[in-house]
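Colleagues,

Please find the record for the two-part complex below.
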Amino acid sequence: MTQEELTAITVDKSVDARGTSCPGPLLAAKKAMGEIQSGQILEVLSADEGTKKDIPKWATKKKHGYLGTVEESGFFKIFIKKG
Amino acid sequence: MENKKLCLALFSGSVDKLVAAGVILGGAAAEDMDVEIFVLLQAAFAFNKENAMTNDRVAEITDKKEEFLASLDRLNTAHWTETFAMVKEMINVKIHVCGFAGKVWNGYKKEDFIDIVDDICGIGEYMTAAEEADINLFI
């Protein structure tokens, strides 16, 4: 998805993991994923550079759809569609 | 499909290595692995109820100990006992304390150790778990 499409997306759940370091955001993503239904969209806010790569890889491995990442100042938003 | 297995032998019991173990446990939780943790010699000191929260030993770059501990605070890093407990709620984690190690540090029963400990074990149990694990780590 393009940055514009991602920015316009309506998410079903948003989890703010900006206060944590690795593996905090990854675990926050995993927990939140357990609370939404297949096809719903999760947004993870993270300021941890390592998880920027980690979460998309994890999501793909777990058969979820990685939609993309939007960079904000000092953090980023990762969008995943539950598989 | 059966979960992958991680076998974690904790020997050092220093805060730096326990924090690292906590991060790896987090990774195991994300991957839905089953984990067996074995608390060996020096780690039994850290897992003893009396010492868990006051133990501030570091094993590596000890000349930077204060900087390291201050950084953990600055980054709001949870105490390793909290990380272990959180992961234990997410996936199947069993924590065994080596009977000999326990005695070295005056811990004789499960109750002498922090609540997340499941039992006291012998080396046979470690060998079996190590043999069956997909990933083996000695920290």
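Chain B has one domain: 5-138.

Comments are welcome before we finalize the supplementary table.
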